[in-house]
Amino acid sequence: MKRPILIHPDPRLKKVCAPVTGITDDLRTLAADMLETMYDAPGIGLAAPQVGVLSRLIVLDCVKEEGETPRPLVMINPEVVASSDETNTYEEGCLSIPDEYADVTRPAEVEVRWTDADGTEHQRRVRRALGHLRAARDRPHQRQALHRLSRRDAAADDHPADGQAQAREGPRVRAVLRWPDARLRRVAEPVAEITEGVRALWDEMVAVMEAMPGVGLAAPQLGECRALAVVDASGERSRVVRMANPEVLHASVELREHEEASPCLPGVSAMIKRPRAVTVRFLNEGGVVEERDFVGLWATSVQHQIDHLRGRMYFDRLGKVKRDMLLRRARKVRAQ
User: Fold this and answer.
1) Is-contact 56 19, C-beta < 8 A?
2) For residue 54, pLDDT beyond 70
């Protein structure tokens, strides 16, 4: 049974909870109700005070991937018995304070002791994984989002050679489509041959990618329903790969997790797992069919762009709870 969630400033949210002294059928029913309420909200955690019960009981489910089996966790009388000196900063939200988010710094690792609904005691060290988004300013270089929007007037300073080129002649640069524009859901049309029009569109895509700056862009993001993409995950920003009709031929079993974002949905991001290495076949800028191996960030970006060409967004790879939370946050950012 779903229960109503208390909303701040309800005074019950400020009260200290009493320890649970016995595991009863009523307690198990409460835990089941809390899980149902959490999934419906949607959220990834809920504490008993949030449904008006002042008992030390929380429920969690941090499954991220779409199609992955849910892993609900019931924790009775949880307590942190040790914590690391290392800290992480994540953007957190609360079901009792809807649509409000803030960066919160907590220990990166904690040791937690609790009892489950069967009465079994547990003690486990866990890395912090409950913050659903990581603040952009705290991302190390290797975990930056695939697209990072910058101030328009800073583009030439960040990439002086590109800025000078645009000042001389410059490709046409149009605005990136914003979700939920229906064109982002269309499957891109294959490109029959490499024409001057295709090359001009590639040049425009590179200019937009560099201005963000990002490590890739797909033609549908500019409103062009053609199977074209550009990728440059090099540190020197000088190894752009222009692709038409890219397709993955082989993918590694090993996965790599990366924080992905899109200029089509600014202000939000999510950790996505994809194959660490892929072999891709595409029509290159010389009009020749080419097969090339991509590894690491290059592989992540190529797969991200191919998703766009298939009418998919990166958040489609999240489970429902994570996806709904991200889209709700995106709506709040857009409304600001």
Assistant:
1) yes
2) yes
- 125, β-bridge pairs: 111
Which tokens belong to 80?
Answer: 């942190």
The model's pLDDT over 264-299, given as tens digits with 9 standing for 90+, comes to 999 899 999 999 999 999 999 999 999 999 999 999
In three-state form (DSSP H/G/I as H, E/B as E, the rest C), the secondary structure along the chain is CCCCCCCCCCHHHHCCCECCCCCCHHHHHHHHHHHHHHHHCCCCEEEHHHHCCCECEEEECCCCECCCCCCCEEEEEEEEEEECCCEEEEEEEECCEEEEEEEEEEECEEEEEEECCCCCEEEEEEECCCCCEECHHHCCHHHCCCECCCCHHHHHHHCHHHHHHHHHCCCCCCCCCCCCCHHHHCCCECCCCCCHHHHHHHHHHHHHHHHCCECEEEHHHHCCCECEEEECCCCCCCCCEEEEEEEEEEECCCEEEEEECCCCCCCCCEEEEEECEEEEEEECCCCCEEEEEEECHHHHHHHHHHHHHCCCCHHHHECHHHHHHHHHHHHHHHHC
Does this model's pTM top 0.85? My answer is no
- The tokens describing 203, both together, are 């040049």
Tokens standing for residue 238: 């000088």
Distance CA 143, CA 133 (A): 12
- Which residues does 37 contact at the CB level (< 8 Å), separation at least 6? 2, 3, 5, 46, 51
Confidence of residue 104 (pLDDT cuts 50, 70, 90): confident
Is the pLDDT confidence value at 120 over 80?
yes
